[in-house]
Amino acid sequence: MEELKNRSKFSGKIGFVLAAAGSAVGLGNLWRFPYLAAKYGGGIFLLVYIVLAITFGFALMIAEIALGRKTGLSVSAAYKKLNRKWAFLGYISAAVPIIILPYYSVIGGWVTKYIDTYVSGQSAAAADANYFSNFISQTWQPIIWFGIFVLATALVVFFGVEKGIERVSKVMMPILVVLSIGIAIFVITRPGSSAGLKYYFVPDFSQLSSKTVLAAIGQLFYSMSLAMGIMITYGSYMKKDVDLEKSVHQIEIFDTGFALIAGLMIVPGVAVFSGSVENLNASGPGLMFQVLPQVFHNMPGGHIIGGLFFILVLFAALTSSISLMETVVSIFQDRTKLKRKTLVVLVAVGTFLVGLLSSLGFGVLSFIQPLGEGTSLLDFFDFISNSVIMPIVALLTCIFVGYVIKTKTISEEVRLSSRFREEKLFVVMIKYIAPIGLVLILVSSVLNGLGIVKI
Ligand code: TRP
Asked: Averaged over 373-382, what is the pLDDT?
């Protein structure tokens, strides 16, 4: 248990929840959740997402955090310590942040660009329907902003000043939540919002398909930073007397609550400003950047609120990208002899080069549509990580916890700090429901992809 002593611990009871929530809350909530909800039928996506979050998401998060706290190690080492044969799971998990970081930074670049737009007083131009597509289809503009975002992330990681950013974002995050609630209230009190609200909240079961479920599972992993070893690392910093189950609930409520609010600003916003919800199924990664400028344009003082909003979003995005880059650097640190600072430079350059594909995918490379008509390279990287690799990691984690080290190993760890109130739910999810569900979903998505069946 040497490592355990040497690991610095989060201070106090709330410290862990704040740090884990800081990694969880980011563009996943603000950018990704709303466009997926719009695309996959609104209410039905919401329903599937919430049911999955309180059952499957809960069980997986408990398992990951407990694995980390028990071993005091980060992902690969944690699996290796519990069972040598399972070290490979650490390697597969490592692929996820490596794939996510580049395209996450492309979106981070879009956010940075919008700060510039508002600060330089172009809020009216941004509300134009073509502003966003004109921007992302260019070659250099998006690359420059994406480069700035990668540089900012890398500088923080290089100089090791994450603590400073964390302190700032502890102040910024609550402001972002309050501002988002205000914007959502403004949107839903506009005439014409009711069609959007109905679409967002009332499930239409005819839209339920394996694609909806797969999208919801992928979003769950992405938004809560699950199925990539992140929560194992966070768990390794958690004190033994912190109530693990309660912390998981707090992180889930915070993350899901914020995603719901973000959806509430954006989905009904479409109905208000385009007058219908009919084209929502065609929504893509640009939705937030197309809808919000229209909202701000119609809001008193919107040009200032818009600027403030995107600055706050930038901080939420930066805390996530910093934590992603940290993870990628530590993955290579464990496997090479290179110095940390050298690795930060290499990872930043690599991130930039790989991200170029996603950025150019909306412009000169837009003829590459790997997932079918109208999809982009960014959609492709997003799909591979969230809908293929993460479900596989989650499936293997369930098998590992349920049948190799057994669920009692986790239960014992949870009980160090409190009673395990939902132990039955946890055991049934990890051993039976989640693995079976994941296999069904993966198989049906492969068959769907090959065009063999339509489920
Ligand atoms: N959960 C983050 C968000 O909602 C994104 C994310 C995915 C992340 N994996 C991560 C952040 C790993 C930090 C570390 O935006």
From this structure: 92
Can you tell me the distance from the alpha carbon of 127 to that of 292, in angstroms, rounded to the nearest whole number? 8
- Ligand 1: centre distance to CA 139 (Å): 27
pTM of the full structure? 0.93
For residue 275, report the distance from its CA to the centre of ligand 1, in Å: 33
448 pLDDT above the threshold of 80? no
Gap from CA of 242 to ligand 1 centroid (Å):
23
Does the pLDDT of residue 260 top 90, yes or no? yes
The answer to whether 262 touches 104, Cβ cutoff 8 Å, is no
The encoded tokens of residue 136 equal 């992302």
Closest Cα to residue 52, out of 452, 351, 447, 433?
A: 433
**What pLDDT score does 2 carry?**
37
Predicted confidence (pLDDT) per residue in 262-318, tens digit = 999 999 999 999 888 888 988 899 999 999 999 999 999 999 999 999 999 999 999
Whether 377 lines ligand 1, by a CB cut-off of 6 Å, is no
* DSSP code string of 197-261: HHHHHS--GGG--HHHHHHHHHHHHHHTT-SSSHHHHHHHTS-TTS-HHHHHHHHHHHHHHHHHH
User: Radius of gyration of the chain from Cα atoms?
Assistant: 21
Is residue 385 in contact with ligand 1, taking CB distance under 6 Å? no
How many CA atoms, within 13 angstroms, populate the side-chain half-sphere of residue 222? 31
Amino acid at site 221: F
- 29 CB near ligand 1 (under 6 Å): yes
Q: Is residue 391 lining ligand 1, measured as CB closer than 6 Å?
A: no
- Dihedral angle at the C-alpha atoms of 50, 407, 386, 14, nearest 10 degrees? 60
Q: Quick check: helix, strand or coil at residue 406?
A: coil
34, 37, 40, 41: CA torsion to nearest 10: -130
Instruction: Give the helix/strand (H/E) hosting 331.
Output: helix 302-335
Pocket test for ligand 1, best of 222, 319, 386 (most atoms within 8 A of CB): 222
Please enumerate in sequence order all residues whose Cβ is within 8 A of that of 31, keeping only pairs 6 or more positions apart, or say none. Answer: 107, 285, 288
- State whether the beta carbon of 105 lies less than 6 angstroms from ligand 1: no
